[in-house]
Every structure is written in C-alpha cells, then in structure tokens.
Task: structure prediction
Amino acid sequence: MPAEKPLWQAFLVFVAPMMVSNILQSLFGTINNIYLGQLIGVNALAAASAAFPLMFLFVAFVIGLGAGASILIGQAWGAGQRDKVKEIAAAALLATLVIGITISVFGGLFTRQLMIALATPANILDQATDYARIMMLGMPLTFAFLLSTSLLRGVGDTVTPLLGLAISTVLGLIITPALILGWTGLPPLGVTSAAIASAISTAVGMAWFVIHLIRRNHPLAPDAAMLRHLHVDLSLLGRILRLGIPTAIQIVTMSLAELALLGIVNGFGSDATAAYGAVNQVIGYAQFPAISIAISASVFGAQAIGRGDVARLGAIVRTALLLNLVLTGGLVALIYLFSRTVMGFFITDTAVLDLSQHLLHIVLWSSIVFGMAGIFSGTMRASGTVFVPTLLSVLAIALIEVPSAIVLSRHFGVTGVWYAWPITFCVMLLLQASYYRFVWRKKTITRLV
Result:
C-alpha cells in the first residue's frame, strides 16, 4: 500500500483484481455444471452436486486457515518483518498439506461410505463416489492453491492470485469438455471429467505460482528461506488456528442456514426452488464487491497495525464503507435497472421469471448492508479480535435468519423467506458496528507477531 497514494486509490488497486478473481471462480463452477448437465445429463450434474457439501466443508476449513494466516502475514508485512512473513506462510502451508494429505488418503479410501452417509440417491451413488474420490485425492493441491491466494493478499498482492486463477480456470474449461467428449483420445470419462480437469488445472496453476514467485523473488516465494521454516511450530500454528477456525465456523453456519432456508422454499414447489437458485446466483455476483472490500479492509488494517499506525484504522473503515456504497451500491442499482434481463439469463418460464424478479427486488439492496457489516468485522479481525465478531454473525444467523424465515413464510408464503435476508443483514450491521464503536475502539491494539 504505497504511502503516496490516496487510501481510496490503494483500495481500488487492491479490490479490482480480487473482484475479477471471484467472478472467475464462480464462472468456473457455473460453466462446469453446464458441461455436466448439457453434455452428459441430469444425473451427472446431480452426482457432482451430491458431493458438494462434503467438498465445501473441507474447503471452508482451509479458507479459515488462510484468513488467520493472512492476518498475521499482513501484520508482519506492515512491520517490515520479511522473514516472519515466510515463517508464518511455511507454518500455514505445512498444516494445509498435512490436512490435505490426510483427507486425500482417508477420504479416498472411504469415499463410498461418506457418500452413503450423505444420503446420496442410489441411482447416482456410483457416479457421485467416483467424482468425490478424485476431488479428495486432489485436495492437497486444491488446499495449497486456495491458501496461496489468501497469503498473497496478506502482503498486498491481488494480481498474482488473479493471474494464477485465470490460467487454472481457462485450462479447466478446456479440459473438461475434452474429457467428456473423448477429444483426448481416451474413452469419454463421464462425470469424473470435471474432477480430473479440476485437479490438472489446479496443479498447473500451482506450478505457475511457484515459478512466478521464485522468478520475481517474491516475499512468499517457496525458496530455501521458506523451506527452513517448514517445521512444526505449535505456538505459531495455534495463533493461526485461533484466528482462522472462527471464520471457518461462520462459513459453515451460513451454509447450514442456506440449506435450512432451501428446505422451506422447497415446500412451496419447484417454481419457488427454481426462483431461489436463480436469485441466489445473482445475489452472489452482487456481493462480490462487498466481500472484496471487506477483505481489503482486513488486510489494510493488519498492515497498519503491523506498522504501528493504529490511528489509520478509522480512515480505513471510512474509506471501505464509502467504496462499498459506491461499488456495491452502483452494481445493485444496475441490477435493479435491468433486473428482468438479468433474471432472464437463468429463467425462461414467464411465471417463474415474475416471481424471481419480485424476490430479487426484496433482497438485492441488502447486499450493501451485508458489505458494511463485513467491513466492521473484517477490520476487527485484523487486530486478532475474531471470536466476538464471529459469535455476533452466528447468533444473527441462528436466532434471526432461520426463525424469521420460518415465521414470515407462514404469513406471506415464499416471499416471507426472502425478507429474512435483509432483516438478518441489518441486525448483523447493527451488532458489528455497535461492538466496533463502543467496545473494540476502546481496546489497546497491538501486533500479534
């Protein structure tokens, strides 16, 4: 974060590549699902979807680990402790590889039992097992790739993750149909094509990371200095986990709540379910700026704390809130303006399109509020204050979102479910902002490394 740049410019330079990265990740998943559904059939899509909850649980933990490590790296980077940056990265990488290899071995051996435990329908059990087994065998690489993107952001680098992800995404989108259709000279590989393509593209992306970072003498290059730190440091690992596990818990809690709400929506019929899926796709894209800005506030905050410039935290929060209003608010306004066209990308049936547009109008604006709550919690996390922000979010989800969806759906039908999101995000903002203003700002903020 160059000192001569205005803070808002530094934010934009940091946020823009991250937003594009988020879009690429979502497009990769969406297009892969289209490949499976269109080129193989609905059972192939169902088999991949059946494995998703298991994959998501593992990935959520690594996202949390990466979040914890990036806070420590941000502080060490702000303090100019280049060797400490490598030490933290090595500890996080070692933990990630151990976890990934463990999942790869045991998950690969007991994949079928795991899929049965998830109540996978019998007609897709074999396909789902094959798909999930390959995905789990590739977990060490997947975990290392995801962790690398988080660690790089900790030192203020969002361009390298974008380039690595672009290479991986483009390659994956070429390999998947080639394997499905037998263009490689091999027999068509069915649903496992997507899993194999994901493993290959991730391996290539990870190899590019290694070569690129070493050539640039990047602070996070996996060189001899980092390898010297590749040993078990329980104290450092404990700090990473203490910061990262709450983030993983919050991600899993949000996903469980989504499943609960989907169960409510399913009770109103297939049209409501289709509308739910389409609106969620649009909301996901609308929240990309909000999520990226919240992560940026956390990284900038960690670096400021590392430099001993705690007074700058207030300016970081104000700048992030303003950019969220402009960027997320601007995108939300555009989607409102062209809402029917946007929903038409996913829905063709007129009745379902009308319902989807109505539901989108109810919930879309709350993406701005969601972003504001994330900025407050992200800034507090940058100082190592993770338990209370996580607890506040989890309580809002468990005590507000799900209960209000249940109650309102009984009075207003499927529309009532969608009122639960704005209500929950507003409560989250009130709780996070209040704790930030009346408790956290009165604390003495010190470096963790």
